[in-house]
Amino acid sequence: MVRRWPVRTLWSIPLLATLLLTPSTAAAQQTAPLPSYQPQAAQEPEASAVVFEGLASFGNYNLFASGSGCKLYTGGVEYDRNTWGRFLRAQVDYVGEILPLVLLQEPTQSDYHGYPTTNQRRIVPGIGITPIGFRMLWRRGQLVQPYVEEKGGILAFTRKVINSNATYEDFSLQSSVGMLVKASRRYDVRVSLYSDFHMSNAFIVPVNPGLDVMNVSFGLSYNLGGRRAASQ
After folding, report:
1. What is the pLDDT of residues 176-193, one digit of tens each?
2. Quick check: helix, strand or coil at residue 99?
3. CATH code, domain with 144
4. What is the number of alpha carbons within 13 Å of residue 154 lying toward its C-beta?
5. Structural domain total, the chain
6. Rounded to an integer, what distance in angstroms lies between the CA atom of residue 166 and that of residue 208?
7. Which residue, among 207, 133, 145, has the nearest Cα to 174 in the 3D structure?
8. Does residue 202 sit within a domain?
């Protein structure tokens, strides 16, 4: 005699096999890897500093200009930023400068070449801006940090200077050699005992005596932070 299974039992066999062979949704969710999120670290800015500076001339010479008998005094703020990495083992910085105080002591009368024709002197005030410049700084962060610096800009005075037929404005070029002396983590003292300050109107008018002065400059540098250029 053949035994017959109930129809309900026959339908239950494939259903039970499906449940056993198919993993549960909850288990699949537990074993599936979750996407990982790693926030990108903010890039540290380049090393930069602000320098509160002053300059005083102690003589002049006639190399690229013919004016003489003048003295120059300036005061302002310089901004330095490590923009161009390193070269010749030095950190190469961009330099910009604002000079709200410029004082030129000059003869009240001079000839075509800017040579004094009188002993009388006067003070002519002005301002200056130096948007273009670079600095090469060695031994960054050490006690003594030598540097060389070049800056170019423009000066504007309240009257025509060096000669009455010259201009109110003059282009400027500063060349200096000095050092930073580390005072603390944030502050450095800047000393330059010899530098050159050249000014002339580049012959935008026929009379261009120009002036070259030797000077000393001092400054207090405040380090704004940031990473230093990588050594090469």
Report:
1. 999 999 999 999 999 999
2. strand
3. 2.40.160.20
4. 7
5. 1
6. 6
7. 133
8. yes
